[in-house]
Structure formats: C-alpha cells, structure tokens
Specification:
The complex is a heterodimer of chains A (130) and B (128). Chain A has 130 residues and is mostly helical. In chain A, 55% of the residues lie in helices and 3% in strands. In chain A, strands 1-2 form a two-stranded antiparallel ribbon. In chain A, strand 1 and strand 2 form a beta hairpin. The longest helix of chain A is centred in the last third of the chain and has 45 residues. Chain A is elongated. Chain B is mainly alpha-helical and 128 residues long. Chain B contains eight helices and no strands. The termini of chain B are far apart. The chains are: A mainly alpha (130), B mainly alpha (128). At the A-B interface, helix 1, helix 2 and helix 3 of A face helix 2, helix 5 and helix 8 of B.
Amino acid sequence: MKYCPTCGEPNPDNARFCVKCGREIPSETTPSPAYTPPQHSPNPNMPETYLWQSIVVTILCCLPLGIPAIVYAAQVEKYYLQGNIDAANRASRNAKNFCIASLVSGLAIAIIYVIYLATVGSLLGLFAVA
Amino acid sequence: MSPARLSNYKKASLIIICLILLGGVYFIFNPEKGFFPPCLFYRVTGFQCPGCGSQRAIHSLLHLRIGEAFCYNLLLIPALLLVFLLVYLTCFGGKKRAPQLYRKLSGRKFILSVLFIIIIYWIARNIF
C-alpha cells in the first residue's frame, strides 16, 4: 500500500496514477529525479479573457469596475504566450471577478434605488400632498 | 442530451427571457425620468463614466432612433455589436469556425485598443 502524494488516498503498490485524484504517483523504481516535467503541458487552451463580459459591465454598470476587468483581460494572452499558464489563469480569474463585482454592485445599486423610491420617495410624496 | 447541455439550454433561455423583459421595460419607459437608477459615479463625482447615457441610448435604440442613441452614448452601439460577435465566438462555436478571428479578438493588442478607446471616450466626454 502506498499513498498518493497529492491527496493522501491509499493506492495499490503498483498504481501509477491515484485512484481518487488521477495524479501521477511517483514510484521508487523509476529513476525520475533527474527529469523534471515541463511547467505546462504542451498546448493547453488559452484561458478565457472575459472581454465581452467586461465590455458589458463597463457600458451598463454604474461603477467603472469594468476597466480593471479589461486590463486583466489584456494580460491573459501576454502571459499565455510567455508560457506562464498560472499567471494567465490568474489574470483570467481576476477579469472574471471584476466583472462579477461590477455586475453585483450595479444590480445592488439599482435595487436599492428602486426600493428607496418605493418607500422613502413615496412617503415624501405623501407628505408633500398633505 | 447530457444534463450539462440541458442546464446550458436552461441558462440560455433564462438569460433570453430576462433580456426580453428588460428590453420591454426600456422600450416602454423613458429612462429620462422615473424609477431608473442614475449613475452612482456621476452622482458622486460629477463626472460622466463611460457607461453614462446607456439607458437612454437603449431606449432610443429600441425605438430605432439610431442617431439619438449615438448622442446619449457614443460607444453603446459599437460595444453591442462587438459583444454580439464575441458572444458568438465564445459561446456559440465561433471559436472553432473562426479560430483566427477569435485569437485576434482575445489578443493583447485588440483588448488594449478597446481599453484605449473607452478611456479616451471617458476623458473626452467630460471635456467637451
């Protein structure tokens, strides 16, 4: 019995890949220390840039949070072409997060505004009439 | 049909229903007055943001007053066209049918020029 170094799942002695997470389990018999695998697999797809989402929130949401989203979107390809997949993924995730933040804050402001109009606004109107 | 595919269809139909409802609201009511939320950035700073006027522009556009839409927000119509194209490329298989175009539009140069145009418009509309 040996244990997967990634997730700790017990595996049979002759297993080359973990039965749970599928990662490779280095075995003592293969002389591998000299060989380090490349940092990124040969041709993973470029992470998404979230450009259209960024443009939508820039034009339609009331806080200019779409601008940083576009800045991050622009970094995705740069890091991808440098072979820095981690950084490309991070830029992609940041772009996505700024889009979500912009959308959520925009919706929240719109909803709060409508509630405000419906409650305080109509009360004030009532007083004005009275 | 796999469950993931089905949920995608559900998501898409939900989005389309929301868009139609919102479109109806913006078609019937004039954002110039009433219950439409104002731009917080404009309220707080007194400067227009790149998206200011887009609600009025959508109202004009839905009434097919193209020129008026351009007056309220110069970028709305070009942005919408670009967004339609990008949605086709990323979500409706355009990635495979036009990989070269997809790569170009995901590229750094293109995105930075989009950013440049938006920032120039942001500055210019507050000066002129």
